[in-house]
């Protein structure tokens, strides 16, 4: 826990409204109690959320705080909340097992966090599991290939998993996904300390390399201006004991990252090709990539969606 005193922030109603908008851009909504803990600028009380919702013209429908334009999507958002309650525990345990294998065979991966819907509280069984990684310099594409190769082998054992347009694949479902990959030299300072990046860290669940996750927050105090809650961030799902490497780091020289980039780019294009008849899936991928810039891989005009 960091010793941090937040600077003055905007009034609670404005912060609540901005928090709801931030959540909805990512495709989900939360209860007043959950929103109170996730509020931009620091936690507020649940009564303050309800008062702010009325003051800012927000709606509380189906137990979720939403903007009027999202009322029609409440049932879809509610189904995510229900799905998370039903399936998150099993998928977190599955991800812990996968990450143990991943870091054992890819020792250049120094930190792994659960991200996306499984971390934020909106996981459905059709979703894949998003992972954020910190890797040694010059190993970003090697990490991408490692996640995808081991992820495919892992998915072969889960071919009966429900899928949607984002996770459907010909051989096995898309199950484990590299969402954000950072090199260690990119951490201090981060290129971005805006509210979007701060929120990404706030809802992430560190599994491995928790000390690196904590160092990111400590070395980038601007993140705390958006979410002071990061100063008290915990890691309840951290792997204990930490996995041990089975292969030496010298077996993965940075020179191999160029070949991994070429291989990964082919895999990326293939994944986009499988979504060619699903514009909503392509739009969702494009949105996620936009939120990750400037850290996205294969980010050139030939591969943007």
Describe the structure in your own words.
The chain has 305 residues and is an alpha+beta fold. The protein folds into two domains: 12-66, Arc Repressor Mutant, subunit A; 85-292, no CATH class. It contains eleven helices and six strands. The strands form two sheets. Strands 5-4-3-6 form a four-stranded mixed beta sheet, with helices on both faces. Strands 1-2 form a two-stranded antiparallel sheet. α6 (140-156) links the parallel β4 (129-135) and β5 (176-183). α2 packs across α3 and α6 (140-156) crosses α10 (257-274). The longest helix is centred in the N-terminal third of the chain and has 32 residues, at 74-105. The radius of gyration is 19 Å and the shape is globular. The relative contact order is 0.12.
Defining key terms:
two-stranded antiparallel ribbon, about 300 residues, alpha+beta, globular, 11 helices, 2 domains, single chain, Arc Repressor Mutant, subunit A, four-stranded mixed beta sheet
Give the oligomeric state of the chains in this entry, treating copies of one chain as homo and distinct chains as hetero: single chain
Using the alpha-carbon principal axes, give the shape. Answer: globular
**Helical proportion?**
40-55%
Distance, first to last CA: 39 Å
The percentage of residues in β strands lies in: 5-15%
Number of helices: 11
Placed side by side, the strands forming the largest sheet appear as 5-4-3-6
Give a quick account of the main beta sheet: strands, pairing sense, barrel closure.
Answer: 4 strands, mixed
Let me know the average pLDDT. 91
The number of distinct β-strands equals 6
- Could you list the spans in which at least 5 consecutive residues all have pLDDT below 50? 301-305
């Amino acid at each position: 826990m960091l010793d941090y005193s937040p600077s003055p922030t905007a009034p609670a109603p404005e912060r609540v409204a901005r928090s709801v908008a931030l959540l909805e851009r990512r495709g989900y909504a939360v209860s007043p109690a959950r929103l109170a803990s996730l509020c931009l600028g620091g936690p507020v009380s649940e009564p303050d959320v309800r008062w702010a919702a009325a003051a800012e013209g927000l709606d509380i429908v189906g137990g979720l705080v939403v903007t009027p334009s999202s009322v029609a999507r409440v049932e879809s958002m509610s189904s995510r909340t229900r799905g998370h309650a039903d399936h998150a525990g099993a998928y977190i345990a599955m991800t812990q097992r996968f990450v143990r294998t991943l870091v054992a065979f890819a020792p250049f991966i120094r930190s792994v966090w659960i991200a996306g819907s499984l971390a934020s509280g909106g996981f459905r069984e059709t979703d894949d599991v998003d992972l954020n990684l910190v890797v040694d310099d010059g190993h970003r594409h090697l990490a991408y290939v490692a996640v995808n190769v081991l992820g495919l082998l892992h998915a072969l054992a889960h071919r009966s998993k429900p899928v949607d347009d984002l996770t459907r694949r010909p051989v096995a479902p898309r199950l484990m996904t590299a969402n954000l990959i950072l090199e260690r030299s990119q951490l201090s300072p981060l290129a971005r300390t805006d509210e979007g990046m701060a929120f990404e860290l706030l809802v992430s669940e560190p599994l491995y390399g928790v000390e690196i996750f904590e160092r990111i927050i400590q070395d980038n105090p601007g993140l705390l201006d958006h979410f002071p809650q990061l100063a008290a961030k915990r890691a309840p799902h951290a792997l204990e004991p930490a996995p041990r490497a089975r292969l030496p780091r010298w077996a993965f020289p940075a020179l191999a990252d160029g070949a991994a980039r070429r291989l990964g780019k082919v895999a990326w294009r293939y994944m986009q090709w499988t979504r060619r008849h699903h514009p909503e899936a392509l739009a969702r991928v494009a949105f996620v990539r936009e939120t990750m810039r400037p850290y996205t891989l294969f980010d050139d005009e030939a591969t943007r969606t």
